[in-house]
Amino acid sequence: MVILNRGNKPERPLVSTTLNWGEVNTIFTVFKRIQQAKSQAESLTKELTCISAEIEKIQNWPMFRRCHLNNIHTLSAETNGPAPKRAKYDFPQADDGYVKVYTDGACENNGKPNAKAGIGVWFQEDHPLNISKPVDGKATNNNAEIQACIHAVQVAKDCGIDKVEIITDSQFTINAMTNWIKNWKKNNWKLAGGKGDVKNKSDFKKLDQLCQGLQIRWVHVRGHTGIKGNEMADELARKGARLYKPPC
Question: Start and end of every RNase H type-1 domain (predicted)?
Fold first, then answer.
């Protein structure tokens, strides 16, 4: 084969290069490999983009942030070794060893058809187990306050914590868990005088069950008074409320 090459300058004379068929075949083979490599690289780039998008979705799942999912492992049928240790995190503690956590609920347009509610759980600045998510079920302020406590206690249990100080501005939740709940349970979760079921019964039952076996200390703070933990939990709750979608 003869290749005529003028180069990049028009004024240069044509130069002929003679190649045998073996050399031509080598050129075509190399070119083909280059094309295949390019195609594979493009395919890999697309795949990595998709994987990155999926990872981002998973990282936004509230459950992903739980400590028991930070130690994901695979158990085979043949392996009967000891269970892996739970992931360790630093938690703020009171002098007597209680882990301190701030909880809050937020509800926009509370009591209206377009209400949106979310929960906030705050341990400390940039803590990996801080939580911001919409409420489950009906969007009300009380639902949000109770569910925030549920998530806080659940995280504590998952991390092997047995002494928890829950700091909240919801006096309603504190009264319910330290006083009213005793009579509710005696009356099969009925209001005094048989006036119907306790409101938020399912959430209170879940919270009560989670608290079994733990030492829970309930601390009330006034909301929106500049207490950092309360303000941060409120901010997380408001962000969660913006993600709320009413149940079908």
Answer: 95-242
Task: Give CA 158 to chain center in angstroms.
Answer: 14
Residues 6+ apart with CB under 8 A from 168: 102, 103, 104, 145, 148, 149, 174, 218, 219, 220, 221
Q: Residue 86 falls within a domain, yes or no? A: no
Q: Which two tokens stand for residue 211?
A: 């608290």
Residue 99 CA to residue 229 CA, distance in Å, equals: 13
Domain shared by 172 and 225, yes or no? yes
Instruction: Give the separation between CA 28 and CA 8, rounded to whole angstroms.
Output: 23
| CA-wise closest residue to 130 among 168, 167, 91 | 91
My answer on whether 20 and 141 are in the same domain is no
With CA atoms as reference, report the closest residue to 60 among 243, 247, 201, 248: 243
Residue range 19-74, pLDDT digits in tens: 567 766 777 776 777 777 777 777 676 666 666 655 554 554 444 444 544 443 33
β-bridge mates for residue 197, sequence order: 190
pLDDT tens digit sequence for 111-170:
999 999 999 999 999 999 999 999 999 999 999 999 999 999 999 999 999 999 999 999
17 lies in the same domain as 110: no
Q: In whole angstroms, what is the distance from residue 211 CA to residue 108 CA?
A: 29
Q: What SS3 class is residue 9? A: coil
Q: HSE of 219 in the Cβ direction (CA atoms, 13 Å)?
A: 15
Backbone angles phi, psi at 22, to 5 degrees: -65, -40
